[in-house]
Amino acid sequence: MSGASGGEERPPPNWILQHPAYQQMKDLQVGDSAQVHAAFLVYMDLTEVRRWKEVSCVKSPELQVVLLEAREKEGAPTLTILPLPAHQSVTHKSIRHVLDRGFPMLLCAVGADSTLVYQRMTDGLVTPDPPVGPFQDAGRRQHRKRRQQR
């Protein structure tokens, strides 16, 4: 029996184009369909995989891109995410525009195979957080035998 006559529901072939979030991003009319597609993939990752809260999309009129705003968890600060196709270059000026919005920023490079790479961007130099984990000093050092020279 075929899937259609067997009572199974198949998603439409272009389900992305019909998704309400994608439609909302298209309605922002940024003009770059590759960037809109990248923004949608990041939106889906944040909402469905990472379960971030309050994910929304906004237009940056200066950059003509779709930006995402989200919280990693309830009560966390709002972050601005700049999703860009990996082949698209980014300038200091564009990063400055996003940082000037007043929220911490994540740059997300979206590969042709839908791989997502997030990079936290800061306004200036920031000391990194110390490593997290159950690290313990073993209290012993490895000793290497010295070769005797003759």
Strand arrangement, major sheet? 1-2-3-4-5
Rg computed from alpha carbons, rounded to a whole number of angstroms: 23 Å
Assembly state (oligomeric): single chain
Number of helices: 4
Structural class by SSE content: alpha+beta
Shape: globular
Report the average pLDDT across residues.
Answer: 87
Folded structure, characterized:
This protein is of the alpha+beta class and 150 residues long. Helix content is 25%, strand content 23%. It is built from four helices and five strands; from the N terminus they run αααβββαββ. The protein has helices spanning 15-18, 20-27, 33-49, 92-99, and strands spanning 53-60, 65-71, 78-85, 105-110, 116-121. Strands 1-2-3-4-5 form a five-stranded mixed β-sheet, sandwiched between helices. Strand 3, helix 4 (92-99) and strand 4 (105-110) form a beta-alpha-beta unit. Helix 2 packs antiparallel against helix 3. The longest helix is centred in the first third of the chain and has 17 residues, at 33-49. The radius of gyration is 23 Å and the shape is globular. 18% of the residues are buried.
